[in-house]
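DATA SHEET
Item: assembly model
Revision: 1
Owner: S.N.
Input lines:
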Amino acid sequence: MEKTQSFIASNKNRFLNELFDLLRIPSVSADKKFKSDVIKAAEFLAQKLMAAGMDNVELMQTEGNPIVYGEKIIDTTKPTVLVYGHYDVQPADPYDLWVSPPFEPIVRDEKIWARGACDDKGQTYMHVKAIESMIVNDELPCNVKVIIEGEEEVGSSNLSPFLKKYKEKLKADVVLISDTSMIANDCPSITVGLRGLSYLEVEVVGCNRDLHSGVYGGAVANPINVLCEMIASLKDENKHITIAGFYEDVRELSADERKALNLRPFNLEEYKKELKLTDVEGEKDFTTLERVSIRPTVDVNGIWGGYIGEGAKTVLPAKASAKISMRLVPNQQSQKISELFATHFKKIAPKSVTVKVTAHHGGEPVITPTDTVAYRAAAKAMEKTFGIVPLPGYEGGSIPIVASFETILGLKTVLFGFGLDTDALHSPNENYGLFNFYKGIETIPYFYKYYAEMS
Amino acid sequence: MEKTQSFIASNKNRFLNELFDLLRIPSVSADKKFKSDVIKAAEFLAQKLMAAGMDNVELMQTEGNPIVYGEKIIDTTKPTVLVYGHYDVQPADPYDLWVSPPFEPIVRDEKIWARGACDDKGQTYMHVKAIESMIVNDELPCNVKVIIEGEEEVGSSNLSPFLKKYKEKLKADVVLISDTSMIANDCPSITVGLRGLSYLEVEVVGCNRDLHSGVYGGAVANPINVLCEMIASLKDENKHITIAGFYEDVRELSADERKALNLRPFNLEEYKKELKLTDVEGEKDFTTLERVSIRPTVDVNGIWGGYIGEGAKTVLPAKASAKISMRLVPNQQSQKISELFATHFKKIAPKSVTVKVTAHHGGEPVITPTDTVAYRAAAKAMEKTFGIVPLPGYEGGSIPIVASFETILGLKTVLFGFGLDTDALHSPNENYGLFNFYKGIETIPYFYKYYAEMS
């Protein structure tokens, strides 16, 4: 990989400028008004895959946003890596909390600042450039197929049908995804566990219209108060979730497993300081590392109701709403948990209101194996470029499609992420270290090398 | 009052058209962007007071919106009525729930539909037209002074300083206000009790920024969940408020008083049907009529936090906020209750968050006497035009300035309202019956007549 590495070294500025062009496209999949930008981002990546020397590049249509496809088959007797990434990003609001505008990327303090800088444009683009570098220098040691989707941030609902439809076309030996983080720049890791997700929207309706809180207050249910009471009751005083059957399928780790998990470097005081927290809060009898990885959660992601403008309005509102999500752990099932939640939420509603529950997307929790050639190749590649053997890591986020790759394509995944927990994914001021972006581009070719050699 | 009544009968259309002109001005005091409309409404009323034949009409400046003043002194040995009204209105949002636009008044089903149709432009304008009718026909039997303010819906914070400053100018014998409702069109009533108000805004802050709910969920306090828990804890299972000391000053009514209060016609099934409620909800051991009149409340008027746009965003937000108000009853004090709330709310906050509490305006609960000449004159006037002796009534709303008239000017108030509870004050589709508007204009002159005769 010598020529490849020296090519990377001499093209760093160009790689970064190209990523900036991609980051300037506000491809927010959750909001219809960005629809044309979503398409623009897909077209941009297709063009870059072609420029990288990939073949049969196309925008493959789905019922939602297109999936960018490209391949380079050098020898059908060699193994094939299927790279997955996504070009859509989370909404950037609240915009006023960004130090620099979310879709005007900039380098500051050795970091790239923009929505999608890490999740997942930055990490996806590492692969595009690593593949280009290997193809251009004739050092690609095995076959590669790339799919980059545009609906990851809204639940990837069209990916499974796509995988089913193109099972033959997507035939491969392993899936490689960079959409996770490492423990630290001096403590690389490969993610082996991910939480799943159930995401629902609830609406509590009291009266048929907004009422004067003086005339009716005290006699008529206030949907905001009721919603608050219902949400509050979802956890008990130990922050244990009260939904009937919620913990039924949760895999409890052994004492040894929990001990191993807690070995990773973690300083609670630094964690609190970095987040400017007065204190952490979570399920009793579990550590912070456990709470964010092997334990399920319920969080309100958004709430609204009544008068939220300037000043005071004495209204008793007709309704109140919330977006509520649960992070799931093996062996919980997203659909089952969503149904348990809906049943529970309707059951705890007082007679004085009516409740609507709508399910958004979900995703299954995942454990990826460490005893595969692909995992060993990834670990060896990281050891090569970082000079440190990476740790296996558990992450709290969800990549629902990992389960789909396994069930539909029969493929194991390597979660080869180069981000950090401090990259502010989904938050204002998302960022991605230049170190991480370049280290990713340098490390990926070694994965191909070792994977081809060891297969 | 014969000439006056016949003048009213022949000018009904003009009176209504003028009110429509006033209703077209969106004088929303809570929102700065309507500032120029607020002034426009004041100027409109000043012009109409002059046209009505009043003297010394002017816009009197305050630190906020101006107060419209006018007077007609016919004989300094006769008693003086001080009329109070307000020309500002509540915000009209949510606009999409209005059948016809809030600032385009229209008559439909014998009712005037517009923001302010009743509260308080419609009711205030009855006085302007009644006074005009008496002056024009030379039948005004005593002196009258009018003040119409523009900050009632945001707490009347500049009215008390105004009353103090112009104590001499505002010298009178009784205050007459139409800003309340009657029990029904065939059951007229005069309000003798009003609830007070404490209104606060709270903010719960967790982390210093929005977080990814997957990466941090379960280990870091979610300010929305925490706010919900705090709000839920404000009432116990009997809907009794848990704030320490909250009920300390509440005047408990005697069994006889409660019995009398519950004598007024009230049909719970019709009430539920009219509001499309599945059930009522309120403090245990009190009737609906009691819950909305002689018992204090706590209601969330607005709540917001996290992602409230389209679709799903897996954010663990940095903060959540709510507007919370309490309706107070005699002898609770607004300032004391606001302080008790703030202390309590900070005390119940978990260590994992910080809490800010800001007080908006408040107002004192009121009981007006029934044993005065003014009350008897008002009752006799209603009996004259309705053919029915009015009942004394308790209302759930607040008119904080009634207490100010008593403490600053030493004046008792007659709450001479002609609205109905179904007028949708503060709600979309506010309306005011043509019957009520005209009946008010006809009844008011008789009040002057009997008040002058009985004084």
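QC remark: Chain B is about 35% helix and 20% strand.
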